[in-house]
Structure prediction request, 351 residues.
Amino acid sequence: MKTVLEKLDTENIDERIIKKAGTILREGGLVAFPTETVYGLGGDALNPQSSQKIYVAKGRPSDNPLIVHIAKLEQLEDIAKDIPKDAYKMAEKFWPGPLTMILHKKSCVPKETTGGLETVAVRMPFHQGALKLIEESGGFIAAPSANRSGRPSPTKASHVIDDLYGLIDMILDGGQVGIGLESTIIDMSEEKPVILRPGFVTKKMLKDICSEVETDPGIGNNIGKEREPKAPGMKYRHYAPYGQLIVVEGEEKKVISTINYLVQERRMQGKRTGVLALEETKKAYVSDIVKSIGSRHNEEEIARSLFSALREFDELGVDFIYSEAFYTPHMGQAIMNRLLKAAGYTVVQAK
Ligand code: TXA
Ligand code: MG
Prediction:
C-alpha cells in the first residue's frame, strides 16, 4: 500500500490536508495523526471494517478494544448511554484533554471497535489538528496508539513511519507530541470510578471531582503481585524495546554503582549496553551508550522522552538497557507504569 505523508502545522492548519485525510477516513481508510498524548492510528469508529483494518495494521489482538475520539461533547450521547453525572463533571474539567472514559456503549458502536465489549472508551483530545480531523471525518475516530503492537507508543511521526509505513493510507506529521504518555483511562461504567491506566490526569486530580475514585489493583506497580488488569490492553507485553530492559531501584549512589557493575559484566560477555539516566546522573555511568531522559526537575520532559529513548536504544543495537527508576511527583506513577511494563517487570534492587 502507498502511504501518503503530509505535514500538519498546528499553528496554521492546512484545510486541504484535513479534507484529504477526512475523505480517507470516511471511505474506510486509515490515517495516523498526532494528539497531545501520542500519535493515534485512526479509522472510522462506526465502520466495523475500518476497525478490523486497524487490528491488522498494528498486528494487535482483536480482543483489545479501541478508544473512540470525539470533537464535541454532544457527540458523547450518540455513542454512550447511562452516562453518570460524574462523567459529565470529568468531561467538563478535563476535555478536551488526556482523559479517556469507559462508558456503556450504544448499539451504533460496532463490536469490532470495542473488542466485543458492551462498553466503549471515549476521549476528546486537546490537539487542534486532531479535533479538526475528527470533525472532518464524520465525528468518531477509533484510534489506538500508532505503533505496531508491543512496541513503544509513537511520540514523533518518524516512529509511525518506522512501524506502519506501507500498511496505512496516510501519516500526518505534526512534529513531537506534548505529553508523550497515553491518556489516563477511567472506568465510569460501574458503581465506582476506577482508574485502569495512569496518565497525565492523576488520581488526585480526579478525586477532586469524585472522592470515590479508585485504582485498578491490576495496574499497580507492585512487582510480583500482578493481577489481571481490567483494560484488556494492559495485560499484554507493551512498549518493549528489542534489547532487554532492566530497571534498577534504590538510593541514587547505590543505583549508579549497581548499574555500572551490571554493565561491566555484560560488556565482558561481549554485549552492547545502554543506560537510561537523568541529566544530573548521566556522567556517573560507564557504558557503550548513556542517554539522559531529562532533568529530575522537569518531569514533563521525562514523560515526553521515555518512549523515544527506548526506540533510540533499538536503533543503536543495544542488547541490554539498564534504567534508573523515575518516581517523579506528578506523573511518576504513569512514567513507572510504562517503564516497568517495557521491562516486563524486571527490577533489580541496588545494593
Ligand atoms: O492517549 C491515548 O489514549 C492514545 C491516543 C491516540 O488517544 N490512544 C491509546 O490507545 O493509547 P490504545 O489503544 O493504545 O490504548 C487503549 C487502552 C487499551 O489498554 C485498551 O485495552 C483500553 O484502552 N480500553 C479500550 N476500550 C476499553 C473498554 N471498553 N474497557 C476497558 N478498557 C478499554
Ligand atoms: Mg497502545
Observations:
- The chain is about 30% helix and 20% strand.
- The first strand starts at residue 4 and ends at 7.
- The radius of gyration is 20 Å.
- The chain has a mean pLDDT of 95.
